[in-house]
Design goal:
alpha+beta, Jelly Rolls, disordered N terminus, four-stranded antiparallel β-sheet, about 200 residues
């Protein structure tokens, strides 16, 4: 399976400023933007297992991962529905709870070239946790898919409140981004071979 680095969530720049507010016990203070788009994941035991297997959360205790689950927001996409479009600003990371997501990039002539296919347990959009850069590709649900969003504003809040935990996540993220950039270079080389040569 090929993977590529992507930006973040499919939101406008203004929406990127918003995130779910902190959770206290069973009472959630809902931000109107995130609360409308996402809902909290309730199946925590299964979710903890899912997150524990992800390299971005490597080295975290189960207690720390349970805290991360309170920052995630869930949304289900229908088959054929676009998660985000190329060039849109990003605002966070996506984790696939179920389903399949295609990653495509438009090449010369308007044709869509498939760069990767993500499945349950994969994640993408990690670059948006570092910087709100534009999306480098388009992602689309190949079947009904449930995604968990980890917005950058929530990571920023975690940096302020639990800096040691946040630093560990960022260290894992930096290592992962380096690995995926290497793979992205290979994807780019393959894409260039498909482009018509001048002359």
């Amino acid at each position: 399976m090929q993977v590529v680095p992507l930006g973040g969530l499919a939101l406008t720049a203004s929406r990127a400023k918003y995130s779910m507010e902190c959770m206290k016990g069973d009472n959630r203070m809902k931000n109107p933007v995130w609360a409308y788009i996402f809902r909290s994941k309730s199946d925590e035991p299964t979710l903890v297992e899912l997150l524990s297997a992800l390299p971005i959360f490597e080295g975290l205790s189960r207690t720390q991962i349970r805290g991360i689950t309170r920052l995630l927001h869930e949304r289900t996409y229908a088959k054929g529905e676009t998660v985000f479009n190329e060039t849109e600003p990003g605002a966070g990371l996506y984790i696939i709870s179920s389903g399949r997501i295609a990653v495509t990039k438009q090449i010369e002539g308007g044709e869509q070239f498939e760069l990767a296919e993500f499945v349950e347990g994969n994640f993408f959009g990690e670059l948006a946790l570092i910087d709100e850069i534009p999306r480098s590709a388009t992602t689309t649900a190949l079947e009904t898919s449930t995604l968990l969003a980890f917005p950058k504003p929530d990571l920023d809040r975690l940096i302020e409140r639990q800096p040691q935990l946040a630093v560990r996540i960022l260290r894992n993220l930096a290592r992962l981004v380096a690995q995926r950039l290497l793979q992205a270079n290979r994807n780019l080389e393959e894409l260039q071979r498909l482009l018509p040569k001048e002359g």
